[in-house]
TrEMBL record:
This is Serine hydroxymethyltransferase. The record marks H259 as: Plays an important role in substrate specificity. Its cofactor is pyridoxal 5'-phosphate. (6S)-5,6,7,8-tetrahydrofolate binds at L148, G152, H153, L154. Catalyzes the reversible interconversion of serine and glycine with tetrahydrofolate (THF) serving as the one-carbon carrier. This reaction serves as the major source of one-carbon groups required for the biosynthesis of purines, thymidylate, methionine, and other important biomolecules. Also exhibits THF-independent aldolase activity toward beta-hydroxyamino acids, producing glycine and aldehydes, via a retro-aldol mechanism. It comes from Jatrophihabitans cynanchi. Residues 6-109, 141-413 form the Serine hydroxymethyltransferase-like domain. One of its GO terms (molecular function) is glycine hydroxymethyltransferase activity. Gene3D superfamilies: Aspartate Aminotransferase, domain 1, Type I PLP-dependent aspartate aminotransferase-like (Major domain).
């Protein structure tokens, strides 16, 4: 840090402050974690200085032997950890991994047949007319994914994301009574919509998904099953999600981030069945530039960590701690979407405390508890203010918290939410953002959070 401070002291200050914040507060953001020192150190070194566009052993730059080594290691660890036939570890993030996967599916399902029909080997060999009709065919495809308010992700075909411009999108939601995924409803929607890609995966659905059933649905309508396991990859790696609930053997293409429950560096990767491998490997230069050698190396280290028996114990603890946290909240009167959890996250409906998600998120932050507001199914407050707060156990489980500590965390959350009241907006009407916390509660909770 002294080296950094000598050049730009404010950056060194921000790094120190981040460490202090992370140590004195309770990190409950379901998509965050604490990467190990080995992973963090692997990201800050000379591998970062090398250009290596291309694939292992087939680069557009000279001198890539060490990048080849780390990329191969990361891919091998990923294949062994997840039992996948093929792994592509270059994506810089989850959004990139999904983009690589979408293009690979389009290339495999639409572009290759079009090239074969035109008797061409490469798009550059197509006549202008054939190229225009291929572009139209590529832009005319459909994707079916989980709706945002049920817990789906923006990259699953929604308008603000490029995937929403690539595909005509339709969504499946959850059962209004139970909040659970209704597979018969997904099947009915798939039959009607006939998607090229059926997407399964989520960022805020607190339950596991039966991927064997999703594959049956995909097969029935001739869709490619793409699973985005970004949130729960750690539970798959740690064998908490096995059999029908392990996406990798059932999906044609599986994408993930590496920094959430998997506890690696910020980044993404794609796993796939052999028939998609060539198209997936064309992620660079199709949608990616030069890979980040330092981050691929850190992925190799994190994936090697996840292959150790200790990681299975960690993943089991993430799941059992989520149950302890959810039970602790519900015992104290909180309402959870779906009435609990069987993964690493829970979604609190804070409207029962008379609050919006925005007010609850801010009041918790003031009290040293870091969460994020999140829409709940059919949310009357929309995606900005929301009625929910999402919480997860991966980060605090990495710090060694067990069920007892998580029960205390549940108590602190309910104390803060119960002591928080909405305040009127400046104009006098109800505000969805302003709030007050009862005397001393924020300070007391902050102190308790720092002590934990
Ligand atoms: N997919 C899912 C399910 C996610 O939850 C996220 C991130 O929140 C992403 C993709 C995007 O990951 P990234 O932020 O690394 O682009």
């Amino acid at each position: 840090l002294d080296l950094i401070a000598a050049v730009e002291p404010d950056v060194a200050g921000a790094i120190r402050a981040e460490l202090a914040d992370q140590r004195s507060s309770l990190k409950l953001i379901a998509s965050e974690n604490y990467a190990s020192p080995a992973v963090l150190l692997t990201m800050g070194n000379w591998l970062s200085d090398k250009y290596a566009e291309g694939t292992i052993g087939h680069r557009f730059y000279a001198g890539c032997q060490n990048i080849d080594t780390v990329e191969q290691l990361a891919a091998d660890h990923a294949k062994a950890l997840f039992g996948a036939p093929h792994a592509y570890v270059q994506p810089h993030s989850g959004i990139d991994a999904n983009l690589v996967a979408f293009w690979a599916i389009l290339a495999q399902r639409v572009e290759s047949p079009a090239l074969a029909q035109a008797g061409a080997k490469h798009v550059n060999d197509l006549s202008d007319d054939d190229w225009q009709s291929l572009r139209k065919a590529l832009g005319d495809q459909r994707a079916l994914g989980m709706s945002l308010d049920a817990g789906g992700h923006l990259t699953h075909g929604f308008r603000p994301n490029i995937s929403g411009k690539m595909f005509h999108q339709s969504s499946y939601g959850t059962d209004p009574e139970t909040g659970l995924l209704d597979y018969d409803d997904v099947a009915a929607k798939a039959r009607e919509f006939k998607p090229l890609v059926l997407i399964a995966g989520y960022s805020a659905y607190p339950r596991r998904i039966n991927f064997a059933r999703m594959r049956e649905i995909a097969d029935e309508v001739g869709a490619t099953l793409m699973v985005d396991m970004a949130h729960f990859a750690g539970l798959v790696a740690g064998k908490v999600f096995a059999g029908d609930f392990d996406p990798v053997p059932h999906a044609h293409v599986t994408t993930t981030t590496t920094h959430k429950s998997l506890r690696g560096p910020r980044g993404g990767l794609v796993l796939c069945q052999p028939e998609y491998a060539d198209s997936v490997d064309r992620g660079c230069p199709m949608v990616l530039g030069g890979p980040l050698g330092n981050v691929m190396a850190a992925k190799a280290v994190a994936l090697a960590e996840a292959r150790q028996p200790m990681f299975q114990q960690y993943a089991q603890n993430v799941a059992s701690n989520a149950v302890a946290l959810a039970d602790g909240l519900m015992r104290r009167g909180a309402r959870l979407v779906t009435g609990g959890t069987d993964n690493h996250l829970a979604l609190i409906d804070v409207s029962t405390f008379g609050l919006t998600g925005r007010q609850a998120e801010s009041a918790l932050l003031d009290s040293g508890i870091v969460t994020n507001r999140n829409a709940i199914p059919r949310d009357p407050n929309g995606a900005w203010y929301t009625s929910g707060v999402r919480i997860g156990t991966p980060a605090l489980t990495s710090r060694g918290f067990g069920p007892t500590e998580f029960d205390r965390v549940a108590e602190l959350i309910v104390d803060v939410l119960s002591a928080t009241t909405p305040t009127a907006a400046a104009s006098g009407g109800a505000s969805k953002a302003k709030y007050t916390i009862g005397d001393g509660v924020a300070d007391k909770t902050h102190a308790a959070a720092a002590e934990l």
